[in-house]
């Protein structure tokens, strides 16, 4: 099948117009596009220009019209609240069109931004689809972020309305969202006209007069509205992701290219068609949730499983397998960290043994590098193909994968397999020259990127060009380093920038450093990602204290971890921090984070020729050893 994969890939690169016009035929268009690939503004490429489409219509209404009204569209499973129910396509259409009707009655229309700060409940998907129905641009903010992060996104997106809920529910208990929202609105400089608040029965949120509206009450008289056609090139959503600075990047996704790419990938990569059941065990706050909990499965008329729970502890490490069997999931998508958590709690796979997993064809993993041990454990215990695939918030759908729907290829542990059609992936050196097979370099993608990838950064085309297009003109910089073997299998090994990946969550070390420096005792801070058996990486902070600081180590640790939790959120999982006398730097003042990371993880490293004072590395090594990293003898 490698020949077929290569043939499809070659066609997509040599004849993108033919390839993607064919894929676009799977969607219903309100107005046909004039051009498939519009290169008139290169390097700002656009797909399907001139065309008009509505994403919500394609994800919901057309399936009802085609006779799928009684099929379950969203299967909600919440072991945390012991709730499960299905929402049919007809019910979904009714819910979404009324919510959109209410929003329209409040003045939300095409092009307006709407922030969604909600937990993993069906109403979050209704909210996204209601925006799509109106042509409004949603921006979902992950619930594990703190008020300050939400405020930053409110200021950037300038939403007309915010949709939120009283609480999320985590294994640790009920997490109140409303106080975080109120705090964020207090911090934000942008004025939000209305917040629509869903009160969950686990926690009641008080509403602010004149600003907050009760969701259920608003629905009572809400009118149903139809789908507003928008230009294929109009934005569907903005999703913020970590950049190398504290200011997150607002990835802009269009309507047309997005729908085409997702419908194509559901069939060709995930082998999911109308009527199949698909489950991506992620959160709607991340790109996986956008693409493969909400839009992708619904665009092809499948049933999507929306899961409010964790791989372990809700209540045990068998919950994934029982859920797959109960709802007849055909393809399942999770992060390697989730498999590692299950492996930790159920090393022999006892919770798998008695479950009939005959419905399950494939398990897909992404979000971070999948180490071969995790892959092999899952293969042995599940006896199913375990498919690593690689992509990013920016691309919105897989860049390298094994196309299980059309052209499966043999699995190589440690590799997300081959570049997917549409992506001309290359590995280059610092000068932009392609490196030989098996040589590590920067992973880049030759422009144009395929449909469905980021169109730009919200209100910041200059940052888009600078971040992604400036290092190698004509190429998109993925920010990942890795290599390609003789057969074209890609191996993604690390980031080339200051981004770390904690339990599949992408976080900026620069943002951590900004927060640490807010503490009055801290003169300077460096944060690195160190290896972690469960989460892949965790952040570790080293701070230089101001002269005269009298805080004990214990107090400092308590205050700094609390500060990061308050400013970035619990998702930061920031627990490791210590003071060092001095940070190692180059003579030009650049902190040697990469070298410190290697020391922490016991990797070999070359003493940087430009280091200002080699002794500083010894000081750091001593501190890292005391923290349980950097074995003293290495
Ligand atoms: N709302 C509020 N808080 C949230 C949250 C949300 N939506 N999601 C996470 N948090 C909180 C958690 O409660 C936890 O808080 P705590 O410090 O008070 O315990 C913190 O953020 C970290 O959560 P998490 O990253 O889930 O770590 P964990 O240690 O609780 O669980 C795993 C570890 C491996 C089980 C978990 O990280 C996991 O399931 N990972 C899968 C990752 C994934 O799906 N990634 C998406 C990319 S595909
Ligand atoms: P995010 O934008 O949060 O989805 O994070 C994207 C980043 O996660 C990528 O740039 C990679 O660094 C990493 N990543 C995601 N999937 C994989 C994978 N399968 N293998 C290696 N790294 C991955």
Brief write-up:
The chain is α/β, with parallel strands linked by helices and 634 residues long. It contains 19 helices and 32 strands.
Which terms summarize this structure?
single chain; 634 residues; alpha/beta; Rossmann fold; GMP Synthetase, Chain A, domain 3; 2 domains; seven-stranded mixed beta sheet; five-stranded parallel beta sheet; 19 helices; 32 strands; 32% helix; globular; binds coenzyme A; binds adenosine monophosphate
Can you characterise this structure?
- The chain has about 625 residues and is of the alpha/beta class.
- It folds into two domains: about 1-310 and about 390-480, 3-Layer(aba) Sandwich (Rossmann fold), CATH 3.40.50; about 505-625, ANL, C-terminal domain (GMP Synthetase, Chain A, domain 3).
- It is built from 19 helices and 32 strands.
- The strands form ten sheets. A seven-stranded mixed beta sheet has the order 5-4-17-16-18-19-20, with helices on both faces. A five-stranded parallel beta sheet has the order 7-6-8-11-12, sandwiched between helices.
- Strand 28 (about 500) and strand 29 form a beta hairpin.
- The longest helix has 17 residues, at about 90-105.
- It starts with a helix and ends in an 8-residue tail after the last helix.
- Coenzyme A binds near residues 282, 310, 335, 503 and 571.
